Amino acid sequence: MDELLCCSDPANSLFRNTLEFDGTAIILSESNGIVRFDLLRTLYASAPLYISSVNTGVVISWDFLHCAAQTPFELNLDACRRFIVYGPTLETATILRGVKMVGGGQHASWSNRQIEIADLSSIPAYEENTLSTKAEAALCFLDMVAEVIRPRLEKSTTACLELSGGLDSACVAAALGRGQLNSDRLMTYGLIHAGIVGSQQIARRSELIQLFNFADITVPSSTCHPFEAFLNADGSARHVPNDELFRQGIEACIDQLPKLPDLILTGIGGDELTIFADKKIALSRSDDDIKFACEALFGVPLSSVSESASFTSSSAVASSFCRADMFLNRGIWPINPLTHPSIVQFSQILPTEMKRERALNKIALAKSGVSDYFLFPRYRENFSEIYNIELRHFDLGTYLQDGMIQKFGILKCPALIRQHILFVNMGTCALPLICFANAIRLEYILRTLRPSDCNHS
């Protein structure tokens, strides 16, 4: 470890370029009576860290609410507005001016009560190449995923796999099987949809459970209430800016497990390994949507998101960061092997043909013994319908009455409510639908942080 750290020049420490593990290093130094604090993170980071300056010291935690409680309450209005439009991103700014986020490969320094964050120094990328004769790239992919998982699993006493039944979590399951990492019969869980989509999901998950010998529990996806979850008046439910939209359902799954795991594996990041080969998949909202949202909700232009560079696709890292609080708050360490830099590099090298239409995943799973039925499902198994139904039934006008997001000048609540009424009556509106969930989450968090300013009992 010593050779990875440069205490005299922390910013140039090799620690920040380390791929092998998810690590954090802290260096304390003093020069001429001035204390300096440096925080370094490895390239692979499965959870965000937050840092805030407090009096003559600094607070660091994965817990945003803990850092927020230690620093003076001062909203970053631009960051709040960007959060409503874009949701969680990888920018270092948070909704509070005194709290910064530190991601993979970054360097945070504190001195004289000032925090500075430097981005990762370089992001090595590889060009696509051709396959060699008799190449087994798909099986090599599973072997590499298994090698990412192995050292983490060896340190775990009770591990669990989040098994949706989709291609990504299925590849993690196949890697566990191929790497012979399931000797203790891993626990798995899943949220199951209703109707024919749920029947398909059950059939596909059952195939994986039997093939790889998992001990499984399921919970109906109808337990997820992405809007009603914010209605508890006492504020006892935990919500943070970087959060899982369907947290309620996943926590219900964890509660049903026979034993609380200390490690959870997910398939987050699988889409991004091959997504750039499929032009039909849009990664961002249109400029027109963003422009309208800004004019309608804020009345002022919105500064662009200044995301920190990341080794893995920013959407994959943001997704893993959104899961972190839900797991860490229960003492569970999240592992997202498909976001690991070694897996990302491997995918970069593969020829386009092996990535188009998720070919890498499908070939790997076919060679692992899954059926054609599994590989080519009839229905999409996503949560958009649950989100839309909940949004239609949520009384946004009442919830935002005397809302803090209006009180602090973040947005115009009447404009948001008008768009919600339009969606309820017409099934569509001019705003990106995720704006509603983000605005409600922000309102709830502000009530949590500033209960004395809240008019709601």
Defining traits:
18 helices; 3 domains; Rossmann fold; Asparagine synthetase domain-containing protein; alpha/beta; Rossmann-like_a/b/a_fold; 5-stranded parallel β-sheet; 457 residues; 14% strand; globular
Provide structural commentary.
InterPro entries: Rossmann-like_a/b/a_fold. This is Asparagine synthetase domain-containing protein. The protein is α/β, with parallel strands linked by helices and 457 residues long. The chain has 18 helices and 12 strands. It has helices spanning 64-70, 77-86, 137-154, 167-178, 195-212, 247-256, 270-274, 287-297, 314-328, 341-349, 352-355, 359-368, 372-375, 384-393, 396-399, 404-407, 413-426, 434-449; strands at 24-31, 34-41, 49-54, 57-61, 99-102, 107-111, 114-118, 159-162, 187-192, 215-220, 263-265, 333-335. Helix 3 packs across helix 4 (167-178).
Short description:
This protein is of the alpha/beta class. The protein has helices at residues 64-70, 77-86, 137-154, 167-178, 195-212, 247-256, 270-274, 287-297, 314-328, 341-349, 352-355, 359-368, 372-375, 384-393, 396-399, 404-407, 413-426, 434-449, and strands at residues 24-31, 34-41, 49-54, 57-61, 99-102, 107-111, 114-118, 159-162, 187-192, 215-220, 263-265, 333-335.
